[in-house]
Amino acid sequence: MRVVLTDVSKGRDGIALPQTSVAFASCRVTLAIAETEQRPTILGLIASGRMRPDTGSVLIDGHKGAAALRRRVALVDVPDVSDPAPNVTVAGIVAEELMFAGRRSDPLAALRWLDETDARDLARVPIADVAPARRLRLLLELATLRDGVEGVVLVSPDRHGGDPREWWALAQEFADRGLAVLVVAGEASVMALAEAPSQPGRPARPRPSRVRPRRAAVPSSRRVRA
């Protein structure tokens, strides 16, 4: 699967999201930089077929199709859109996601799934109190349970704190499973990733696409091989 956004924007004169071009594809991670409170969310919504851009185009495998995007691309942990309520326990979130995936979703099934993912200790913990890396792993694992999901869009993982190398490695792990992965994060996280010393066995440093504030700017997308 390959998703290509070309010159997409949102809002009058692109104030909500300036013209942006980015692509993400199966078995790869793409990192897009978007600053301000709402631009990461808007970019994520457009990239997953949940919002129509005011300009530009979004193609999946060379064709238009918002319905196909919504079906095949999961939107993960987007502020005020798909992020779980902070006081809900992990077991409650798992049960709900199992239900959406068409699986058994009773408390026992939720606990069994947590056992399978080595997260039973989090069952009664509110999701807001879960460490960033474990939170993101849980939400990514749950998002990929649904039939037909071939890609994920992860928005602002850096807002939870922690070491950005952890969510970058996690994104690459899911790409290694064959998924198309788009991560939308802030400039500070990308700088931290770029400055981190290279170590054997660690994921490659990202080469991000940037959402620029100038209306006329159309940044070229750079895909990062997992």
From TrEMBL:
Protein name (Swiss-Prot/TrEMBL): ABC transporter ATP-binding protein
Domain of life assignment: Bacteria
Region (Disordered): 195-226
Residue ranges with Basic residues bias: 204-215
Compositionally biased tracts (Low complexity): 216-226
